[in-house]
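RETRY 2/3 - previous attempt timed out on the joint model. Re-submitting the same 870-residue input unchanged.
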Amino acid sequence: MQLALQILVNGLLLGGLYALLAVGLTLIFGVLRVVNFAHAEFMMLGMFGVYWVWHLTGLDPYLAVLVVTPLVLLFGIVCDRLIIQRTIGAPEVTVVFATLGLSIFLQNAALTLWTADIRSVTTAYSGMVLTPFGLRVSVPMLISFTVAMLAAAGLWLVLTRTLYGKAIQAVAQNREAAALMGIDVRRIYLWTFSVAVAAAGAMGGLIAPLFTVYPRVGISYIVTVFVIVVLGGLGSVPGAVLAALLIGLIEAAAGFLFGAAWAELSYFLIFLAVLIARPQGFFGRRGAEVFAGR
Amino acid sequence: MLEVQGVTVDFDGLRAVDAASFRVDEGCIVGLIGPNGAGKTTLFNTVTGMIRPSAGTVRFAGRDLARLDPADRSRLGIARTFQIVKPFGGLSVRDNVLVGALTRGQAVAEARRTAEATLERLTMTHLADALAASLPLALRKRLEVARALATGPRLLLLDEIMGGLNPTEVNETLTLIRALNAEGLTFLIIEHNMHAIMQIAETVLVLNQGRLIAEGEPAAITRDPQVIAVYLGEPLEPA
Amino acid sequence: MGNEPANELRVSLLVGLPLAAALVAVPTFVSDVFWLGLGITVLMWAALATAWNISGGLAGGLSLGHAAYFGVGAYTATLLFLRFGISPYFGLLAGAVLAGALGAAIGAITLRLRGPFFVLATLAFGIVVHIAAVNWRDLTRGAAGLLLPFGGGARNMLFAGVAPYWYLGLGLLALTLGVTLAIRRSPLGYYLVALREDEDAARALGVKVVRCKVAASAISAALTACAGAFYATYIQYIDPSSTTQFEISVQIALIAIVGGIGTTFGPALGALVVVPLGEILRASLGGGPALMLYGLMLIVIVLAAPNGVIGLLQRLLSMMRSGARRRATTRRSRGHA
Ligand SMILES: Nc1ncnc2c1ncn2[C@@H]1O[C@H](COP(=O)(O)OP(=O)(O)O)[C@@H](O)[C@H]1O
Ligand SMILES: [Mg+2]
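RETRY 2/3 succeeded.
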């Protein structure tokens, strides 16, 4: 019982972190119709950013997140201008492979600049553990989880409660109609993309004190996050959060029961099954999976 | 030849076609008219198998089509054009038509001859090498007809192919339809050009909000008060 | 995208035959192992990209899971030889059949998926196979890999020298190109392109979607597996990171895209550009910067020239042609004056 509860807590904490990454990825898809293969690379940049700020200035990593996230946002704007904007309305091969190219580029830029060394951020509270009801909860994990969930909730509020969010939703539903209503579609794209990748950067910063930092760290996350956003329904923000928590749980439980390899295998099989049986995911709008065929 | 029995189509909440029943006899030309959004194209989609009706049956040449996909139905002899044209943009006009001929089971060389002959018939020979994507809309519509004809159909469904044509072109199209009909091809034609459809159709079906509200000879249809109210607006002078 | 297979056949005979003769003669002139080895690598990637193009280009399903088929080919040939002493010539066929069946299954279940959903499904499939290759240690020995005995002999496709692999690689490329040409000249080729351009219209014309897509996927997978078996006997060592890894899938697709997808010869041309460039960059700059430039190249190509190098060449050629015509007409009009 105690053990089951522990797995539950671990899974939810992990899932909460995934959520922040997944929300951005799903937003980019829902609004721009672009699958951002480079998404986890922005997370990697956030991790390195926090690592360097902490390493060079000794600033607390959670404060460093506040410095690094705007920088990632800025970088997202540049990428949007140079690449993403040009893929809109382009052939499918462009839409798919431009961000894949960006991912390869960023990964190897990091490798060139910072070598393949594995780095980690340590703080005074790194090993600190809370023990409510006999459960072990890592303090930095709890902080990161809380901040990530708050950030995801903030994004959700902006999306549903503000005029700007309404415009984003209008564009997501029908680009042409939104343009006719006088919405500046390109600006919506710009902000959606850069805010979403900034969220990825923030997520990277938040996990820097938890996990090791290295150039190819994104690979292990991007695929998991794809699983999450498809499960949640590509384009659905609440779906992404729920699916992230679910995948966190599955990973923790299956990892404990069968070992990491089986855990991975199991959720890829689930992923394939979902794609095939219910490509709109559990929260997505029907028909999204065939949007290219209109 | 074609029997539609109680066909109903629902799009989450919207009933696009409501218990429509009609038949098209072999060798006939039947017109299908009605205001925009009446469900005409949706009816075509159910006949060709692009959409499964929520109720009702479609029979062709005595056969229930329920279990057949669009490709099977095409191979049985049902061909159609798309109101929103769907050319294979990256292929030449000839190859567009060739695809239709190939599905009859012809070898590539033979299918190419069929394609050439079909293009000739539609006076499109000079366009054979052009990319389909480069054609203007009127010619894309003609390409739709060419492609459908190349499959060697017994029943041809035409969806608003005369919109945007000038009177000469409309007359050419009518002449072509009559000639093909004389050779034994059966037609079901959706058309907004009233003068054209009244000239050529032996029977006219009127669809409004998914329901068939009238069926009869063109002359009777133009005088039908209900049809005038929902669609024609005023009685049509006989053409 | 080039769509005149008849014309293409003429060109491939005119250019291809002399070129093929020259290629066959290469080992008699090039004895340097480095250059010959580079040539063999180019041939293999050319074959892989050409095989990918059958489903990725003609049928329009941008797969990011082809490393799975490559791995199936490599592991089937290797394991049949190591465990049962079956010659890799037969192992290659067995791998092709197995991968073909797998490709047919994947083709069938991804049938309705379009765009990014198709890409993600193939990606997940590739990763499942990779995880299996890493973790099914009883069969694959996992990350430790499998070693083929050196000098297994010509009967076992295991040559001591490099030159025989040149000929095998040439044969492999000829096979994939031949199959591509044959498909493009057959009804299947027309159906695939029609489906890619507009699935609804193709179905309405009588094109059987399932049959065509499954066939394309199976053929592409089987040919990819042949290249996998070739790789295993050439390098004589395989492990998951050199066969089933995601990066392999990316590289296959990248080469086809750089060359020009949907055309017959574009993907092979892509290998001729990308592989040596990659080697040069790696040798002069190191792995990181080389891959940086790969990424950059991919971005620039898909944004600026989605029809690839062959598209650029065609554009250049038609510009030259119209330039020549213009010169000819001005000369004539001057003659009149
Ligand atoms: N695929 C679809 N999904 C949802 N609604 C549809 C679809 N196709 C048509 N409709 C709706 O069904 C109704 C009938 O459309 P349609 O058959 O195209 O009419 P018509 O061809 O008579 O103009 C319209 O209200 C249209 O919006
Ligand atoms: Mg219509």
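Chain A touches chain C through 48 residues (CB under 8 Å). Closing ticket.
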